[in-house]
Amino acid sequence: MKFNLRGRLANFDLPVSKAMNPLFEAIVNSIHAIEEIFLNDIENNGIIQITVIRDDQLQIDPNDRTLEPITGFIIEDNGVGFDDNNFDSFDTSDSIYKLKLGGKGVGRFTWLKAFNTITIESVYGLIDKTKRTFEFIDSDGIINPVTDPVNNSAKTYSKVMLSGVLGKYQKQLPKRLDVIASKIIEHCLSYFVLGTCPNIIIKETTGESLNLKKLYIRDIDASAKVESFEIDGYPFEIKHIRIFSAESLPHRIHWCADRREVIAKHIEKIPNLISRLVAEDKEFSYSAYVSGVYLDQCVNPQRTNFIGFGIDEKNIFSGEVTWKGISEQVHDKIRNFLASYLEPIREEKMARVKNYISNSAPEYRNLWLSSQEDIDAAINPETTSENQIDLELYKIRQRRVLNNKSEAKKLLIEKIENVKDTDEFVLRYEKVMEAVSDDGRADLARYIVQRRVILDLLEKSLKLQPTGKYCYEEVIHNMIMPKGYTSDDIEVDAHNLWLIDEKLAYHFYLASDIPFNEAESIDINSDDKADLLILNNPSMFAEEEYPFGSITIIEFKRPDRSGYSKIDNPVDQIYGYIKKVRGGKAHDKNGQYLSVRQNTPFYCYLICDIKNTVENFLENADFKRTPDGDGYYKYHDTFNAYIEVIPYRKLVNDAKKRNRSLFEHLHL
């Protein structure tokens, strides 16, 4: 895929209000680099030094350099350095290399949006040390890369120099060192709170410096409160943080595991929690950091979410602990901690509502006497409009009216004699619920049985037939996908691609035993035909003119076949198909032809039994055995193709393993 950096930057937005983001990105990158090398003791061994570069030509006050405009920053760390993996990730737009750390692969674009010159210098290597330098520009990306060996006693480091900040961003950068330090702490707060932050020093070229960890302890941690609680024997901890800042930050709950923030969610269930709270005549935002052994156990391998979280608040992680139970306990702790700050807000709001009812809406007086808790929950304390207050009161009253009517109807409709037999009433209720559940179970059972039947038929087809021969490959082919059809011709459940790979069911277009020059959505000047040609949907980041994220080719050979010659070498046959398809053109949404990009990945499956000649072909082509020893695989670098050779017995066994848990539920 071709990549136009200037075009990418033109579509990349960096608001002037986010002028600090380039510095934040560099600092977080440094933290990640330090984590790679000092994973277990980041706090004591990691060091990040930020040097503020100012305009020496504009000396407003020689005694106060904080008045001089900032022109750039130098960010240095003693992390792993720009090794080959990090360098390759840096050179890849929208890289997913740091996905598990929350990286989106676009942060360095903020550097190009805000600064004229970016220069990077680094030493990397665990044993053999190498120094790497390069520049990063908006026209060509990385330029002038140089790598040189250095003395192996040298320590690893990275130095990022951001120079020549553009005027519109320069105006938005704070000038004072302490203000910059506070904003860095706010942005990287989770690292400080969870004890995974290296030492960060910010300094002037004159030598004046601030230690951010000391500032965090003085301004935030000293006033923090830690509470412990248990749920079903599992210990949890919540750390209450007040962030005194000139900016309005959202109130959040930070759910953590293994000393890392996993997800952060806005707090929405606490009445009277306005955007800015006040303590000691200073405004602050609130954050809760929740951790515990149970959360450590439930975090997913990518550390991006918790198992069961975000699907349904009533879902159970495991055992007796539920997400709902944890969330309720945490919100109770937050309400108790914030009670002294929220109570004055509640009192002011309720006084305003009472005054409105007394003077303007006496029809709600009874509501005030009986439903103050509902009123408190429904009305936003920042609402000052009497029309809005009236609307919320009206909603509360209407809900009460409807609820009362509903209860009355039940009393009027239900015959007293029918309620005497409570067992019968419960039975009626359970019967309806069971019928609904049975419908769902029946559908699932039919689907499971269908899969088992297909597997049984496939196994029988692979056995030696009464004729003394094995069945032709077209029998297997038609069982998996009818020959001569496309995905537009059949229903979704009319194929059995799951026998090969579950993911194959999700595709853009599939042609089964159709000549390439007759396939839709792609124009290939060849009457050859693969058994199955599958065009897969593009990834979400693919450019629109490249409609396919990948292409899959599947070829079937007759079971137990062994007589292959060099001319009908099935491996060469796969290679030939790749060449022909790669030379084709795809249709865009307007029906226009577009070239299939050269780096489109191919996934190829050769379904055949591995006899002597096939085994020789595979070994000569440098294929490797699969871990189970039954099949072969290879990644062809030139074709950007992953090729897997699957014997029929392995095809059946793998499908059985994938479906075993489903079958066991029905005792199949």
Detail the poorly predicted runs: 310-316, 424-443, 539-545
**Beta-strand residue percentage:** 15-25%
Radius of gyration: 33 Å
- The share of residues in helices is 25-40%
Tell me the major beta sheet.
8 strands, mixed
CATH topology of the largest domain, which one?
Restriction Endonuclease
Number of helices: 20
Query: What integer is the average pLDDT?
Result: 81
How far apart are the termini? Answer: 47 Å
For the largest sheet, list the strands in their spatial order. Answer: 5-4-3-6-2-1-7-8
**Strand elements, count:** 26
CATH architecture of the largest domain: 3-Layer(aba) Sandwich
Q: Pairing-aware structural class of the strands and helices?
A: alpha+beta
Q: What is the CATH class name of the largest domain?
A: Alpha Beta
State the shape: globular
Number of domains: 3
Q: How would you describe this structure to a colleague?
A:
The protein is an alpha+beta fold. It folds into 3 domains: 5-219, Histidine kinase-like ATPase, C-terminal domain (Heat Shock Protein 90, 2-Layer Sandwich); 223-347, Ribosomal Protein S5, domain 2; 448-665, Restriction Endonuclease. It is built from 20 helices and 26 strands. An 8-stranded mixed beta sheet has the order 5-4-3-6-2-1-7-8. Strands 17-19-20-23-26-25-24 form a 7-stranded mixed beta sheet. A hairpin with a 4-residue loop joins strand 7 (199-204) and strand 8. Helix 7 (177-187) packs across helix 9. The longest helix is centred in the middle third of the chain and has 40 residues, at 422-461. The chain starts with a helix and ends with a helix. 26% of the residues are buried. The model is unreliable at 310-316, 424-443 and 539-545 (pLDDT under 50).
